[in-house]
Model the fold of this input.
Amino acid sequence: MDGIMPELRFADKQKLIRRMRKCRQAGLKTRYLIIVNLFSGRTPAQTAAAVHVARSTVYRVATRFRLLGEWGLLDRREDNGQAKLSDHVLAELDRLVRSSPEDCGWLRPTWTREMLAETLAQRTGVGLHVTTLSRALQMIRARRGRPRPTVGCPWPKRRKNRRLRAIRQLLATLPKGHVALYADEADVHLNPKIGLDWMGYGQQKTVLTPGQNAKWYLAGALQAATGALVWVDGQRKNSPLFIRLLQRLAQVYAKAKVIHVILDNYRIHSSRITQEAVAAFGGRIVLHFLPPYCPQENKIERLWQDLHAAVTRNHRCRTLWQLLQRVYRFLQRRARPARRPTTARAA
Done:
């Protein structure tokens, strides 16, 4: 190699290759690759093409290796002192991203990189350029996303936890011959839900909306143990729709001694007509109400989310009947064959 690289013993070359393979720093590993390629007999031009760097970089790395040995491969910026993006700084940045700017004295409710840099400097004494902060955000795997709107439960925390523990205890100690299900309703609108989708560069897809919206409603129950689905549908989301679901459950689980239905506090679940219908089952159906505004505790909510993601979001159906056909196919696929009921259409 005409003096570009010094002579090394075979054992030293193998040690260099082992350290290169263990290296996790991208820049340092590139410099190791340059040296290994040169030792393999490649010319500087061939090495530059193989490692995708400039030939001047190959000569510079080779010169430092010849003068300083393996130490010459280290980044000379390490002589500048401790790196700014230390574990302490990254941990504090992660805490800031997970909080609100208003918690840190800002009036703006959403973070900007400039605000993060200034707040971080106040808390750690480390000043970061916006570009460096962007790299730090990538290191902690932060992302810009759309927050999920939620409503806080109005119950005291102790009361809420007591109710949730009672339901979980019921599921954990369900007597033989009893069955437990999560129940809820879902809306199907001809007016499509708008959701995220991949698009080409410079393209914005359009979703054609109907001139007049039309609605249909589903009432479903998801068995807690097996995931079996029972559902009915109708033109209105009212007490008769929910009662038809209870009747369907009584038919599907005819051998069950008691059917426990876990559900939210929507008014049709506790209306007078519903209470009379539940009483008519003679204790075979028992309703267990979740604390208010706790949709994450109702397992069937995830199924409705999947339904909207797979069928109703950004759909192109021109009529409600076309959309419902797709909804029915989705629900039939999700229902277990042994438990799949026939569609109970509203008159």
Summary: The chain has three domains: 10-80, 87-139, 157-193+212-334. Residues 337-347 have pLDDT under 50 and may be disordered. The first helix runs from residue 10 to 22. Residues 101 and 112 are 9 Å apart (CA to CA).
